[in-house]
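Worked example (supplementary).
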Amino acid sequence: MTERPSQITGMLLTIGDEILLGDIPNGNAHHIACELRARGFLLDRIITVGDTEGEIADLLRQCLDRCSFLIVTGGLGPTDDDRTNVAAARAFDLPLVTNRDYSQWLKQRLSDWGIDWSREVERMAEMPEGAVKIGLEMAGFFLLHRQIPCYFLPGVPDEMKYLLAQAVIPDLESRFPKRCSYIKQVVRVQGMLEAEINRRLRELEVEGMGVSIGYLPQGRENWVTIFASAPDEEQCRELIKQAEDKIISLIGSQNVSGRNDDCLEKVIGRSLRQHGWKIAVAESCTGGLLSRKITAIAGASDYLDRGFVTYSNRAKTELLGVPEELLAAHGAVSAEVAVAMAEGARGNAGAEVGIAITGIAGPTGGTAQKPVGTVYIACATPERSSVEKNLFGGTREQIQEHAAQAALVMLWKLLTNERELRCD
Amino acid sequence: MTERPSQITGMLLTIGDEILLGDIPNGNAHHIACELRARGFLLDRIITVGDTEGEIADLLRQCLDRCSFLIVTGGLGPTDDDRTNVAAARAFDLPLVTNRDYSQWLKQRLSDWGIDWSREVERMAEMPEGAVKIGLEMAGFFLLHRQIPCYFLPGVPDEMKYLLAQAVIPDLESRFPKRCSYIKQVVRVQGMLEAEINRRLRELEVEGMGVSIGYLPQGRENWVTIFASAPDEEQCRELIKQAEDKIISLIGSQNVSGRNDDCLEKVIGRSLRQHGWKIAVAESCTGGLLSRKITAIAGASDYLDRGFVTYSNRAKTELLGVPEELLAAHGAVSAEVAVAMAEGARGNAGAEVGIAITGIAGPTGGTAQKPVGTVYIACATPERSSVEKNLFGGTREQIQEHAAQAALVMLWKLLTNERELRCD
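After joint prediction of all chains, the assembly is encoded as:
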């Protein structure tokens, strides 16, 4: 009899007052969920609890009753509020013993720093009896308890990430070789309301397709996620492919910009590189955010050689050649000035495409005619210039983010509609 | 007998497969923890669970056994995987009834969009009997169960935030008027290792001070957080003040850049405005990130009128006047070019201060002499120019982020050390 592949689900316990108190977001949980998912492991509960020995011990016991594996992060450091090793010993009813190698390494490290800290070091190096140290140069240990693998990792993100990749995931993969394959695919939809996407996809008979569909608004973009689970990866890919084809035909391929981590910045960069075109960016109210997004992509120097942050009118005139009369007649936040900025940036850089943003990010500076959130975005090519007016809501940062995203959508549309952009 | 103020702790249940699957970080939990904390309410557990009716119902029952209030987010939408209202009815053993007003509003809204969605609307408008609708134009309801207030909020971040501020927090404040005051203060430390901060603060006898101290590395910055809890706010402030004075004297005031949300960008902006100085920014490998950080602060136009993203050598020469011979002799990533960029930006903008970043963000472009992560940062004033060489680790985005943060630290040091910067 062959073992059937199954879904392996585990639990994650993140320990730390700093998350409960709102000091930091739980970035570790997000990273661990992503990485596990990519290897076909699922989390069915994430629990955050403070640095309280009794609570941690109770939760450890509860978790072990209902999961195939357990990952715990945090509370392994040297300070008084690091109680995870003591709580684990209590939950598993094991004595605490000192790990000699780790204790030695800690002492050496601290003496290199000129720090004498022996009591705390001793405590950090204590682990429940039978625990195996994971990674020598940082906190972390492994325990197999009633056949359930339990991984205790430090809360410091870089250390946690390192041990997760180097130790936890390889160990899980060797323990659960017969798990289901699990693949997610994101379809990125531009310029369409979530309700409209829902309406169009109502025709999908998901039940018969062996996949499940999720919706996730991401700022101005909407993500349709397709999940497939099957005994092997190839079957997953086949299910995803069938569902994706139907989804794209219902939504319209002209509204789909890419899949998975193929963000607009990447798609735009690829398109510019394929055409051998350069782009120049001129920004007022977004202050460099659009340039920053474009240059976050490796190899952006192939198509972006310069960008301008022109906050003042003088900067717009001196750097982009926006006529002073135009600024006086229409104001810096106007369709005319946006177009002049895009054309000026294009000309200055000798680029095929210029894109410009000018607007009022607030919180002050709005008027009745041009309230906070008014943003003009212009694109210029040798053939034509186009401009669009937007009114965005939210805080200063949200308005800046909306404006930069909307500029990317405008660029993407321009680049995918080649009839409008003939630069030969 | 007067009631003594006490700490009010609640639990947060965030519902959604998208968090467990790693699609999105749990931003809602972070926001709720921050906002509650600011009003003197604490969370002692945050649990994330999938859209499974039975699991949600079990957890609701468990939570109610051990908290003073309960907040639940997510699972109130129209799709099949939104099960929170059904689970709540089951957990509280109440029938589901339709909320007429909400049902009407939903129908109207969808008919405005031309969407016929009657079955889903009916389901969205159902609530456990006795529930009070919170906010009409979005999902959300309130239930008092065995004297424990339970708030059910939508998972959509903007809607959740709105209802939290408008309904949940005011209601909690009226129900728990006699709670402890609880204040947190962050001291932001620059240019000092966490281990060194620990060493210096070992002298603090925290126990006798009525506060607790936490350490939180934030990128290149280290935060020392001081928590105080006392019957009233004034006593809290007094405790914080005493502790803060001691902490700053042990760390050295020259290493402390600000407190709470007084980030470097704000401190730098204030200093520039006070001096009546302007700044010009020239960036290569950070592609606009430093400008973006500076202009994220409202009113940045008072001191920044332009910034340059000069990716190519030609852009460095044309916009900033970096001599071609200098680029040929030293390469674009060099101390000499960084200084020339800072001076060029300063001159072009007629600003008192110029700052420039040039480096290799990777993943390609590194050499044995100048590996990926090599970044030069230069500051120029009328009196002098200075430059520093850095080697940052991590991904492209991390290197860019480190470089922009290091530039802010350099600027801050320059501005706080006025002997070095006399622009009169």
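Two points are worth noting when inspecting this output. Confidence is low (pLDDT under 50) at residues 419-424 of chain B. Chain B touches chain A through 88 residues (CB under 8 Å).
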